[in-house]
Amino acid sequence: MAAQKQKSRSSREEPKKNSLIQELIKSDADEDKNSKKMELFKSAGFDMRPDLSKKFRSFSIQSIISKVLNDNLYGQTYSPDTAEELTKSLATTIRLKLKGEVYERYKLIVNVVLGERRGGGVKVGARCLWDPETDSYTSESFVNESLFCVASVYGLLFY
Asked: Where is this region: Disordered (predicted)?
């Protein structure tokens, strides 16, 4: 009886091992195909990665965000009635100002958080799946006596 259980267990495990080996072989073949595709793209004049001059430049983008926040929020007081419209307006303004700054293959994601200063703390987190060689982000904050604002811009390269 115990021998039958052992035999049935090993017969179930064997197809699993074979299918895993087949998947590994297939993935190696796919990698070879992908490298051949990459060579074809390069020979046709298409690079998967942008030149250094065309990468997302956090420092210059951060200064644009800072200018937009200062121009629109200096002297403002927090109002819950206008906060939603103000955040949308800030995000749109930042996106439009950055349109000429970021190059054609980047998708921009602009996130603006606006809140009232009452002495409490706020924690904001974000997670993204990206290529660390080409994708990046930058963030800038603005604080006055009445409100705080954090604007983040994520630049993701389209392949």
From this structure: 1-33
77: nearest Cα among 117, 113, 121, 124: 117
- At 94, the amino acid letter reads I
Q: How many whole angstroms separate alpha carbon 124 and alpha carbon 107?
A: 22
Question: Read out DSSP for the chain?
Answer: -HHHHHHHHHHHHHHHHHHHHHHHHHHHHHHHHHHHHHHHHHHTT--SSPPGGGS--HHHHHHHHHHHHHHHHTT----TTTHHHHHHHHHHHHHHHHTTTS-TTEEEEEEEEEEE-SS------------TTT-EEEEEEEE-SSEEEEEEEEEEE--
Q: How confident is the model at residue 131, as a pLDDT? A: 85
Q: Per-residue pLDDT tens for 5-16?
A: 455 554 555 555
d(CA 88, CA 151) in angstroms, rounded, equals: 11
